[in-house]
Write a structure and sequence with these properties.
It is a single chain. This protein is an alpha/beta fold and 332 residues long. A 7-stranded mixed sheet has the order 3-2-1-4-11-6-12, sandwiched between helices. A two-stranded antiparallel sheet has the order 5-13. It has a two-stranded antiparallel ribbon with strand order 7-8. Keywords: Glycoprotein, Golgi apparatus, Manganese, Membrane, Metal-binding, Signal-anchor, Transferase, Transmembrane, Transmembrane helix.
Length: 332
């Protein structure tokens, strides 16, 4: 038995060494391929294909050794790419861990992304911190409790009160308080934890100068809600049907904001003191003076790269029949 245990440990050690060597060789190869430039200075002409290649390598390494893959994006952060600060409000519910886990696997494929997660709670939780730690994505974890007077009641429909207002504002305050150490070319995006994101969306928004916009699928009672772009490439309106009179009738997932622009408007934030559906318009209206300042993305707003999906509420009625809940002693 002792000999068997020794050999098992030896095989495990050799396996770890082999994977480490594989990781080092992979890093060397990525360095030569991903950051190799030409003498004309056009090293980023093929950035999309290089990023796609790097994603493939990360996926392969992750499949063999998750621990090795965790730090790959950290190792390959580069000043050549602006950072995308993704703000995600979240709150405790049965599907919270599942949704954050799913979202983390998308963000793990995006270089130079910093995930700001804000919990609607009096303190941060080990559940959310665990998801973020395992993701390998650079992150900041905050908490901001929604005031009781504006918090949704358990049986309230989701549209009765705006959710995530206090949490998004907390993230904006964090960015402003850390502005001195941030790259002003960075971009800020508000990503809810129940939406579905194509990784190509993040390369579309990365070079935002003011406010960039694009279509969102499955929102506003439509297959797709999108900006209307004129032949000269400027945004002239929206195809929205629900409350089309809004100044900017778009979903929270439909725009990104330049960090520099946000910092130039230190009071710009969300508020609960406006009508339903006006959160996006309220923020954007504090940053730009009209449609002409918006930057259409995703092939002039003809391509859907994000969907406003919703996870079905799980049916847990059988838990009432148990003397001890099924999740006792286990994190779900």
């Amino acid at each position: 038995m002792a000999l068997f245990t020794y050999r098992a440990r030896q095989r495990k050690f050799v396996s770890k060494v082999g994977l480490s060597v594989c990781g080092i060789l992979t890093i060397i190869w990525i360095t030569q391929y991903y950051f190799a430039g030409d003498s004309s200075g056009g090293q980023w002409e093929n950035a999309p294909s290089r990023i796609a290649c790097l994603r493939t390598v990360v996926s392969l390494v992750r499949s063999r050794d998750p621990g090795c893959a965790v730090d790959i994006w950290r190792k390959f952060r580069t000043d050549a790419l602006p950072v995308i600060y993704v703000i995600t409000p979240t709150y405790a519910r049965p599907v919270q861990k599942a949704e954050l886990t799913r979202l983390s696997y998308t963000f793990a494929l995006v270089p130079n992304l910093h995930w700001i997660v804000v919990e609607d709670s009096s303190q941060t939780t080990s559940l959310v911190k665990g998801v973020l730690e395992r993701s390998g994505v650079p992150y900041t974890l905050l908490n901001e409790l929604t005031p009781p007077e504006v918090k949704l009641k358990p049986n309230d429909p989701s549209w009765v009160r705006p959710r995530g207002v206090a949490q998004r504002n907390a993230a904006l305050r964090w960015l402003r308080s850390h502005a001195e150490g941030l790259d002003l070319r960075s971009v800020v995006y508000f990503a809810d934890d129940d939406n579905t994101y194509d990784v190509r969306l993040f390369e579309e928004m990365r070079w935002t100068r003011t406010v960039s916009v694009w279509p969102v699928g499955l929102v506003g009672g439509l297959y797709v809600e999108r900006p209307i772009v004129a032949q000269n490439g400027s945004v002239v309106g929206w195809n929205s049907v629900w409350r089309p009179q809004r100044p900017y009738p778009i979903d929270m997932a439909a725009f990104a904001v330049s960090l520099e622009l946000l910092l130039r408007h230190p009071d710009a934030e969300f508020t609960v003191r406006i009508s339903r559906g006006y959160q996006e318009s309220h923020l954007i209206g504090q940053l730009v003076s009209g449609l002409g300042e918006l930057e259409p993305r995703a092939r002039n707003c003809t391509q859907v790269l994000v969907w406003h999906t919703r996870t079905e509420k799980p049916k847990l009625k059988q838990e009432a029949n148990l003397k001890v809940h099924s999740n006792f002693g286990i994190e779900v």
